[in-house]
Amino acid sequence: MMESTDKIFITVAVKVEASLEKVWKCFNTPEHIVNWCFASDDWHAPAAENDFREGGKSTTTMAAKDGSFSFDFSWIYTKIKDLEALAYTLEDGRTVSVSFQQTEEGVLLTEIFEPESENSLELQKAGWQAILDNFKKYVEQN
């Protein structure tokens, strides 16, 4: 019997009522990233660095507000198509692609990522979706 080598991917998406330019800037600029890149109100992103070019390394620090836990989420960009798409590889080798699509109702932002093996697929999807929902809230209120 042959083992399947098909990779699993998780897709999360959100529609943001803002211009494509604003969505792109808020998603990719450190001074904005620190305001939305966390999944719940008891977490925050105290630091973000973004070498925004293909081959550039970027890191966002995610931390519990009570100081009990923090980690760096780091990646290397493999593709940047201005106002349209980007792709990157996480430090552990998993890949992520992000697309930005202008619609009549706003910008449809879609992320497709390879899950890690520690947490359930449902938990990972919920966490990434929560971060995107937080992004939507931030962009629409600012």
From TrEMBL:
It holds the Pfam family AHSA1. It comes from Arcicella rigui. It comes from the Bacteria. This is SRPBCC domain-containing protein. Belongs to the AHA1 family. InterPro entries: ASHA1/2-like_C, START-like_dom_sf. Residues 18-140 form the Activator of Hsp90 ATPase homologue 1/2-like C-terminal domain.
